[in-house]
Amino acid sequence: MGDTMKFDKSRALFERAAKVIPGGIYGSKAPGFLVPGAYPYYLDRAAGCRMWDADGTEFIDYLCGYGSMIVGYGNEAVDKAAVARIRQGDLLDQPSPLMVELAERLVGKIAGTAWSVFVKNGTDATTLALSLSRVRTGKPLAILASEAYHGAANWCSANVFPELESERRDIRRFKYNDIEGLEALFRENKGRIACLFLTPYHHPTFAPQEEPDPRLYETARRLCDSEGALLVMDDIRANFRLHEAGSHVRFGARPDLWCMGKALANGYPISVLMGTEELRAVASSFFITGTYWMSAGPMAAALASLDEMERLGGVARLEVLGAAFKEGIEAAGRKVGFGARVTGPAGIPFITFDEDPDLWLNQRFGSAMARRGVFIHPHHNGFISLAHGEDDIALTVERAEAAFAAMAAGRE
Ligand SMILES: Cc1ncc(COP(=O)(O)O)c(C=O)c1O
Description:
- This protein has two domains: 166 residues, Aspartate Aminotransferase, domain 1, CATH 3.90.1150; 236 residues, Aspartate Aminotransferase, domain 2.
- 38% of the residues lie in helices and 14% in strands.
- The strands form three sheets. The chain has a seven-stranded mixed sheet, with helices on both faces. A four-stranded mixed sheet has the order 1-2-3-13. A two-stranded antiparallel ribbon has the order 11-12.
- Pyridoxal-5'-phosphate binds next to helix 4.
């Protein structure tokens, strides 16, 4: 299979792109963020859990549009609802009735929430959460975990240019799960902390994923309460893959604000900031707007996607599929001496190698899998969807066995 893979069209497109788009492809989709020459640059179509690149090569996908696809590419119910709504009227002068329906549905579903504000990107939601926290508390600082990703705005992104330093001035970081370190940070900055951002569990891009320490959330709540700071749950990456009522429920966390996006609408552009009753007043006082934020098509997609998640078995089904993936990949590695380890919740697996914390083996394995028609990101956690089946996982494990065997023999 590896021998037949071609990138002629991908390369030709990239050459054209380099002339008219900075870097050709920017950000996390840039060729350098994968392994140049081993992964396609452009994808052309997708169905279920499969996708085809610009040169026609088929892949079983374990990135799922960076987590956005949860009920299958081209899911008929979701696309039908979205297309019908777009034909009826998508971006209008005022919101459509669907906005009320979706807000009611989410407030009824996500435990502890009282209101929803719809935005486009996750970054819109996290940045709004930061602003609301500062206004509500009258304090400047936000505490984040090291290596935690909260979006592409300069207060939290990888753009650590000295010229942008002023935008990060009020951000402090602690090592995830270092309870004493977190307590010390709150002590040192007493009276100046607006909020603590946490992802439901730790999913750094270049390291194994970590479950929260059993003391983390009670400590976070206690520290926030005594400081008068807000606890923000950034559930953008994990939402609907850990718990139907919000990932915080799985860990007994009690946030004040919630950020969700990605899997909310199976890939249609919509994210949401949600909050408690106590924060309704500050949210109402804010001028919140964006030209596209109230478009109706993605709201129809979100409502249909929430139905589809339930119909297809939801989190319980992802647990079954993820367990098979983990068991199969780890066993395939062990068979020929690789310490492959799959970390994280079942629906959000990340493969690392015990013997290689620098991720070179990830690059070799990811490339060997891409050559065999399986798209597994080399540095980023993966995602399993409700469109994957046991047969897809079994085929993936079969290909992993072949990839590991070729690696062990020094052929790849
Ligand atoms: C945990 C988390 N927060 C925030 C974001 C930012 O979301 P977006 O890329 O939609 O702006 C992401 C995106 O990957 C994320 O994983």
